[in-house]
Amino acid sequence: MSTVNKAQFGQDHIIAWQGSRLYQTMHCKQREIKFHNFAY
């Protein structure tokens, strides 16, 4: 793997990781809301 490819791969990985973190955060909030609605 060339240095350029490594840099590009690293950038993509960071973007994907941030995206999944954002998704997980939103997903957890949705689950909390559902759980609270269910609890009542």
Describe how the helices and strands are arranged.
Blueprint lengths: L2 H37 L1
What would you note in describing this structure?
This protein has 40 residues and is mainly α. It has one domain. It is rod-shaped and about 50 Å long. The termini are far apart.
Question: Could you write a compact summary of the structure shown?
Answer:
The protein is mostly helical and 40 residues long.
Let me know the largest β-sheet.
none
Helix/strand class = mainly alpha
Report the count of strand segments. Answer: 0
Count up the domains: 1
Helix/strand order: H
Measured by DSSP, the beta-strand proportion falls in under 5%
Low-confidence stretches: none
Q: What percent of residues adopt helix (DSSP H or I)? A: over 70%
What integer value in Å does the Rg equal?
17 Å
Distance between the first and last residues' Cα: 55 Å
The rough form would be described as: rod-shaped
How many helix segments? 1
**What's the rounded overall pLDDT mean?**
74
